[in-house]
């Protein structure tokens, strides 16, 4: 499995980029999974449905499956912040690429999605200046980057080119789960 993160501040375009990359990678015959950090009380379940009722009754885990999909819901007895590595360990072993959205401070190699601030706002800070795990920057304003960089600067609006860069750089994104706690 190859793993690449997409990091950047809210509104920079991470979700849109990941959404555009998935079909491009799939068209190239690759199986793609996404690991996404969510906020506290997100839910994929619906009040009154069987699985919701099982969780309400106190089940630690509910696995629901059809011939089309599988979902696992696990309730934590106490709040826990799982690491990106713990979440990657949950993925199917036949995944070619795992795209990680969020987890800005994790130690996975990542592409920074950077845009200049909106009119009148202070310039957005750039992660690549201090984060050695940022391997490239995807932006639609390369001339606005706050600091020159030797890292590749990719066109945020060209998912095909970003997919090609990822595949061409593939070996560096090989994930060895044994190296992480």
What does this structure look like?
InterPro entries: MGD_biosynthesis_adapter, MobB_dom, P-loop_NTPase. One of its GO terms (molecular function) is GTP binding. It holds the Pfam family MobB. Residues 3-140 form the Molybdopterin-guanine dinucleotide biosynthesis protein B (MobB) domain. This is Molybdopterin-guanine dinucleotide biosynthesis protein B. The protein has 181 residues and is an alpha/beta fold. Helices cover 20% and strands 22% of the residues. It contains four helices and eight strands; from the N terminus they run E-H-E-H-E-E-H-E-E-E-E-H. The chain has helices at residues 14-27, 50-56, 84-88, 159-168; strands spanning 2-7, 32-36, 61-65, 70-74, 97-101, 110-114, 134-139, 153-155. It has a six-stranded parallel sheet with strand order 2-5-1-6-7-8. It has a two-stranded antiparallel sheet with strand order 3-4. Strand 3 and strand 4 (70-74) form a beta hairpin. The model has no long low-confidence stretch (mean pLDDT 91).
Search tags:
alpha/beta, 20% helix, 4 helices, 181 residues, single chain, two-stranded antiparallel sheet
Could you provide a short overview of the structure?
It holds the Pfam family MobB. The chain has helices at residues 14-27, 50-56, 84-88, 159-168, and strands spanning 2-7, 32-36, 61-65, 70-74, 97-101, 110-114, 134-139, 153-155. With 181 residues, it is α/β, with parallel strands linked by helices.
């Amino acid at each position: 499995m190859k793993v690449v993160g997409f990091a950047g501040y809210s509104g920079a375009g991470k979700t849109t980029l990941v959404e555009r990359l998935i079909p491009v990678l799939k068209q190239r015959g690759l199986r793609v999974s996404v690991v996404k950090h969510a906020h506290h009380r997100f839910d994929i379940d619906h009040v009154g449905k069987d699985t919701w009722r099982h969780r309400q009754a106190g089940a630690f885990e509910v696995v629901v499956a059809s011939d089309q999909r599988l979902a696992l819901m696990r309730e934590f007895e106490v709040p826990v912040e799982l690491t990106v590595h713990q979440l990657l360990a949950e993925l199917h072993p036949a995944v070619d690429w795992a795209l990680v959205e969020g987890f800005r401070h994790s130690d996975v190699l990542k592409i920074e999605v950077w845009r200049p601030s909106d009119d009148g706002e202070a310039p957005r800070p750039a992660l690549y200046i201090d984060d050695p795990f940022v391997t490239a920057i995807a932006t639609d304003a390369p001339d606005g980057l706050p600091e020159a960089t030797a890292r590749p600067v990719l066109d945020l609006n060209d998912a095909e080119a970003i997919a090609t860069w990822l595949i061409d750089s593939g070996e560096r994104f090989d994930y060895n789960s044994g190296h992480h706690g």
